[in-house]
Amino acid sequence: MLIHLEHVVRDYRVGDSIVHALHDVTLSIDRGAFVALMGPSGSGKSTLLNVLGCLDTPTSGAYVLDGQPVQSLSEDALAEIRQKRIGFIFQAYHLVPRMTAERNVELPLILSGVEPSERRERIGRALDLVGLARRREHRPDQLSGGERQRVAIARAMVTEPSLLLADEPTGNLDSKAGGEIVALLERLHEAGLTIVLVTHDPSVASHAERVISLRDGKIARDAPPETPNLPLGEATP
Ligand code: ADP
Ligand code: MG
Q1: Cα atoms found within 13 Å of the Cα of residue 158, Cβ hemisphere only
Q2: Residue 78 host element (H or E)
Q3: 8 Å CB contact between 118 and 195
Q4: How many domains are there within the chain?
Q5: Strands (E), 116-193
Q6: Residue 89: domain span
Q7: What is the per-residue pLDDT across 179-236, written as a single tens digit (0 to 9) for each?
Q8: Using a 6 Å cutoff on CB, does residue 39 contact ligand 1?
Q9: What is the CATH number of the domain that holds 20?
Q10: 3-class DSSP state for residue 156?
């Protein structure tokens, strides 16, 4: 098991009131799983993803990642986990605008102190993986939305994480580009990556093995997709 949450609560204090963004969430996710997180806006999806990614810590309850209770780890140890073992992608890509695809993908390697020659090799592999080797010199404004998200996936994968967390990665894309992103995530899953993906789109979620629906910070449903593998936009061959 890669992830175990036990009675996790995440409260936010806003003025005099308290928002229960997560309310007693108990959940296990196996290594190699492909999980979709759904639920209405405000139901706690991003909060849960941030807790899973060690970007946020529970108000109470326990989070065990790969056998390690996250609460017991120092800030440095958490930063190292985020850098080396977890990849993130977001709806708005979060690429650095003035940098080429190649330079964007290089950033996490610089942060983790990888030597330049090895950086070049790994950047090449990551851009190949997402089918963008020929766009390495392009800046984000010279790429389509789908290509930008593929650069973001290359940047997330370049450190060879075991867990990929994706917050509405197809939310800004048309169905064809979204379908290509989902196909890419399916390939990464088949190669052994653990994926947790937030989406509003039932056809995107239908490509996961398991769909967890949140409502008011609680798990309302946790089951395989009702109809698996619903068609997405026509992917180019
Ligand atoms: P979702 O991603 O499902 O839309 P979120 O996890 O972003 O939901 O938010 C869950 C709840 O927590 C919402 O009611 C939201 O307003 C609240 N919330 C999220 N982040 C904060 C914050 N930093 N401060 C206060 N309230 C927050
Ligand atoms: Mg959200």
Answers
A1: 31
A2: helix 75-84
A3: no
A4: 1
A5: 163-167
A6: 3-95+161-223
A7: 999 999 999 999 999 999 999 999 999 999 999 999 999 999 999 999 999 998 754 4
A8: yes
A9: 3.40.50.300
A10: helix
DSSP 142: G
CA of 126 relative to ligand 1 center, distance in Å: 33
Q: Which atom of ligand 1 is nearest to the CA of 50?
A: 6
The pair of structure tokens assigned to 209 is 């093995």
Residues with Cβ within 8 Å of residue 41, at least 6 apart in sequence: none
- What is the Cα–Cα distance from 4 to 66, expressed in whole angstroms? 8
Whose alpha carbon is nearest atom 17 of ligand 1? 21
pTM over 0.85: yes
Structure tokens at 75: 């800030």
If you take atom 1 of ligand 1, which residue's CA is the nearest one? 42
Which tens digit of pLDDT belongs to each residue from 20-55? Answer: 999 999 999 999 999 999 999 999 999 999 999 999
